[in-house]
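Example for tutorial group B:
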């Protein structure tokens, strides 16, 4: 239930283990147009705010990149011929199709978890390296690098003082549970915590949003969703009839938003609309 009381130098590039988050363009950011929604209208029209986790509240991109850098450093004989950028790009090329198949129900999540590192090692001509061990080290390092997106912690706490809040996220349920255990204040303030895996689907499937609204006991048009992925969060939330605040750290890149959606790059901009 809600609680109403109140240095490694590595370039960090947006990325995700979840391919449904992939619609953000790699083109350079452009200015964001906030005109579709007015502050007064939004604050009067919502009763519940759902937040995404990865690359919204918690910095998945930072953790992933630093974990891959750690793996590279530990296994230089395997990965030393690749830069961190090259390793990350190759990892995404392997991981993304697996997540897409998992998202569409073609494969089970265990295939994603168990196949990505053997496929990565095959792709870099190192098939005899210990994929299971390397994958285990990656997950350990990934967890060690979890942190809030800058500004997200205070914003989440402030919004939770004013509205009922919840968490709606893709990802493996057990991994997301570990994240919420490490950052217990997220769960403590949330009236609803839903990992899409529990519904049998992944965002942007409409059933995920239907279940979330039912658990919040709020009609769709009274919900605001805060998330970073154009496909999973913006398109999924919009089709569900929710308001959406798109955390567009890399810019809107020409995406057109409807009257129930707006973009922001700084958390203070989100607060100004509530």
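The residue assignment follows.
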């Amino acid at each position: 239930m809600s609680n109403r009381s109140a240095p490694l130098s590595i370039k960090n590039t947006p990325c995700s283990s979840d391919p449904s988050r992939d619609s953000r363009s790699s083109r350079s950011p452009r200015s964001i147009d906030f005109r579709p929604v007015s502050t007064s209208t939004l604050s009067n029209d919502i009763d519940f705010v759902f937040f995404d986790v990865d690359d919204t509240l918690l910095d998945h991109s930072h953790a992933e990149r630093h974990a891959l850098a750690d793996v590279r450093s530990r296994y230089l004989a395997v990965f030393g011929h690749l830069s961190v950028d090259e390793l990350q790009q190759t990892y995404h090329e392997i991981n993304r199709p697996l997540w897409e198949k998992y998202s569409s129900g073609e494969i089970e999540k265990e295939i994603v978890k168990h196949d990505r590192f053997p496929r990565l090692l095959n792709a870099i001509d190192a098939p005899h390296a210990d994929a299971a061990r390397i994958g285990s080290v990656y997950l350990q390092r990934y967890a060690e690098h979890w942190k809030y997106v800058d500004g997200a912690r205070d914003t989440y706490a402030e919004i939770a003082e004013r509205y009922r809040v919840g968490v709606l996220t893709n990802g493996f349920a057990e991994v997301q549970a570990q994240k919420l255990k490490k950052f217990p204040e997220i769960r403590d303030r949330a009236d609803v915590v839903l990992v899409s895996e529990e519904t049998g689907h992944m965002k942007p499937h409409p059933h995920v949003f239907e279940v979330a609204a039912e658990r919040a006991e709020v009609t769709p048009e009274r919900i605001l969703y805060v998330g970073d992925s154009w496909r999973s969060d913006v398109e999924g939330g919009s089709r569900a009839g929710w308001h959406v605040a798109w955390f567009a750290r890399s810019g809107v890149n020409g995406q057109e938003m409807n009257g129930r959606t707006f973009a922001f790059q700084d958390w203070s901009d989100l607060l100004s609309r509530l």
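The longest strand covers residues 164-169. Compare this with the pattern of hydrophobic and polar residues in the output above.
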